[in-house]
Amino acid sequence: MSQNTLQFAPFSSSVDVGFWWKLSQRKLDVYKLDDTPTEIKGFYYNNGPPNISGYLNVDYTAFDEPCQRRPFSIQSVGTLINKNTVEDFKECDKKALINETVFKIWNSIVSGGALHNVEELNRFLLLCYVVES
Q: What angle do CA 38, 67, 114 make, to 5 degrees?
């Protein structure tokens, strides 16, 4: 007899070049020096071959409202924190930011919100900083 055991399947993530272009455009035109967290969208795909795990992709549509659904994907809600300097980036309490994201997922489970909005279970955090040229 074989038993099926629920296992954790790690996944990878990718940020497309188009996202960085769109972010640089928004940083210059909209955000300027404001580095407060911003909600963005990504897509989780799990439709590859059986031995390939799923992946999260963030592209140039991450800022679009409403965000267009993609075939064979689940939309994910994310938080973008774009710091103005590498020093600000290094000073961020990354553990606290991760815990805050986990708390949002947990709160969505406990409150029942995830039953109505599955996207809440796929939250992600994107922390980056501006590179001066």
A: 75
